[in-house]
User: What shape does this take?
Amino acid sequence: MSWETVIGLEIHAQLATRSKIFSGASTAFGAEPNTQACAVDLGLPGVLPVVNAGVVSMAVRFALATDAFITKRSQFARKNYFYPDLPKGYQISQMALPIVGEGSVTVTLPDESEKQINITRAHLEEDAGKSVHDLFDERTGIDLNRAGTPLLEIVSEPDMRSAVEAVAYARHIHALVRYIDICDGNMQEGSFRCDANVSVRPSGQAEFGTRAEIKNLNSFRFLERAIDFEVERQIDRLESGHSVVQETRLYDADKDETRSMRSKEEANDYRYFPDPDLPPLVIDEAFISDVKAAMPELPKARSARFVNDFKLTPADANTVVSDRATADYFEAVIKGQKFPAKLAANWITGELSGRLNKDNLAIADASVGPERLSLLLTRIEDGTISGKIAKQVFEDMWSGKDSADDIIEKKGLKQITDTSAIEAMIDEVIAANPSQVAEYQAGKEKLLSFFVGAVMKASKGKANPGQLNQILRDKLKSG
Assistant: This one.
């Protein structure tokens, strides 16, 4: 039987506020356990929550970025359940009236095709604390620092049909929330994590199959592997005559498998009701207009501008704008310069990106800033150095403070462009290799690389490649 996969994602993005959603406690990561949970976060008697205006602004910003409906009168509710790290016994969330309604995004898949993924809703809520398990003495500690941390839960429609599509959508949302400055996207710290709802159905069937929810996936690789495993597990069960149980499952990365965690709750299990301590959240057009005025240029528009203004290919433009800091760096590099923007894009996504990955650095921490890289690319464009030598100069720039010009001058790296000097070196190489010359002239043109390499060696890599190739071809052809 042929099967179709159906996937919907629930993405939890921690909003980048300095204080929590209903209190003034800090959201800074890495503090000592239980040092950043105040009386409001713990729900102690006599305290009242107050909504952080920053989280409202960020939710509206997300709605504007996804062409979503904005609910001008939304409602906070209590989601009741017991967990050791949920001290109040309930979580303040939104149910019937979320602040962000239906919207959509268009994602680019690995084969460069595009697909629209619809968003059902995005609602504000507080995070719970964290249970810390000690495997050595078999004890569990409770850290409530995260309690009350603001989250935007982004719920998609079940529009994805493969793990690849799900990862493409998750990456798109990950890039978007960072682009609009509402989430730092740090998956290792739990700032961005996914729950995947996965089911299968016979191809052509309209009715959805029974879904399983895989919780707390904090890497794109784990998201893809967990979905692939779960799809195979469900197909195996159905083809062997068993049924799929609606449940919540966890992904074990070490064993590369999902396993049952608990039966899946329905909304009525949580006994939602409007939070009596919080009035309806009301926003007006003036508030929305202010948020809209402060919005940055979105990735799709920026990519189109890079293609139109800088003549990048769509693929190059999408790569550069996938990260806002990278796109800003790119624009700073090419500002007022005459070298092709394509050259800058290649260096940023190639040499610079490789070095950042090697040193585990963000582009904002690059030791070679945009002005220094711009000068280096100018020296490639004006023929002062070759692209190959530029890579050596870049390495010296990365480990020191000297400019490209200083390094080129100190190390004598200027490209040899004197035609007579290049001709003299070519003549010496030709004279020293008569048999190879005869073979080349007999039709073995692959030997050209042999001669180019020999001349480059003689010039210590400084001969202008364009001039060298042209003069060498002419001399070998003429004999």
Remarks:
- The longest strand covers residues 114-126.
